[in-house]
């Protein structure tokens, strides 16, 4: 393992790294690679929701609607944030509930992965496991300002997952350096 990719340690707070962004922005794919690099646990929040519900996401939407899904999503987020040293990939709509934003910001460092609408269309296609994919353009525009409120924005349009992981890791090291400076003062 390279010096750059060593696991984070004190004084870095024992928190989580949380990935948000529109569907198809690369949260799960990048999250898995990042967790391996950090030697942290990877959690895909949609997988937690489906496992806890005992049914796939499309079935939850069909039976409980988006409101029921968002309630399950928030419960899964709260449950997941009880642990630390995790890379958490959140669903694209988690930002639609203001309380979730506060939970994430208090539970770790939030990185927003951004992709253009064209890239999202290519990546998502007509995936039947994405119940809201039929409304891509509308949702994309509606959620843009919600994603913009996060300090750490990472572009994923180029599709180079290694570059995205390195960029997030670099920013994490910058946060660690700031923590060291605070300790010194």
Structure description:
The chain has seven helices and five strands; from the N terminus they run βαβααβαβααβα. It has one domain: P-loop containing nucleotide triphosphate hydrolases (Rossmann fold), CATH 3.40.50. Helix 2 (45-53) packs across helix 3. The protein is an alpha/beta fold. The two termini are 32 Å apart. The model is unreliable at 1-6 and 8-12 (pLDDT under 50). The protein has a five-stranded parallel beta sheet with strand order 2-3-1-4-5. The chain is globular.
Task: Please tally the helical runs, counting DSSP H or I stretches of 4 or more residues.
Answer: 7
Tell me the name of the CATH homologous superfamily: P-loop containing nucleotide triphosphate hydrolases
Task: List how many beta strands DSSP finds.
Answer: 5
Quick one: overall form?
globular
CATH architecture: 3-Layer(aba) Sandwich
Uncertain runs: 1-6, 8-12
Short description:
The protein is α/β, with parallel strands linked by helices and 185 residues long.
């Amino acid at each position: 393992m390279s010096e750059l990719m060593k696991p984070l340690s004190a004084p870095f707070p024992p928190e989580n790294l949380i990935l948000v962004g529109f569907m198809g922005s690369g949260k799960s794919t990048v999250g898995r690679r990042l967790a391996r690099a950090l030697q942290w646990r990877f959690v895909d929040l949609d997988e937690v929701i489906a496992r806890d519900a005992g049914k796939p996401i499309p079935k939850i939407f069909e039976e409980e609607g988006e409101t029921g899904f968002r309630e399950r999503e928030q419960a899964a987020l709260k449950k997941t944030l009880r642990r630390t040293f995790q890379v958490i990939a959140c669903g694209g709509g988690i930002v639609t509930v203001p309380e979730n934003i506060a939970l994430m910001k208090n539970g770790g460092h939030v990185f927003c992965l951004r992709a253009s609408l064209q890239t999202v269309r290519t990546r998502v296609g007509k995936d039947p496991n994405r119940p809201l994919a039929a409304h891509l353009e509308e949702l994309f525009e509606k959620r843009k300002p919600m994603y913009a409120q996060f300090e750490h924005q990472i572009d994923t349009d180029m599709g180079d997952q290694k570059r995205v992981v390195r960029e997030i890791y670099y920013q994490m090291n910058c946060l660690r350096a700031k923590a060291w400076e605070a300790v010194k003062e």
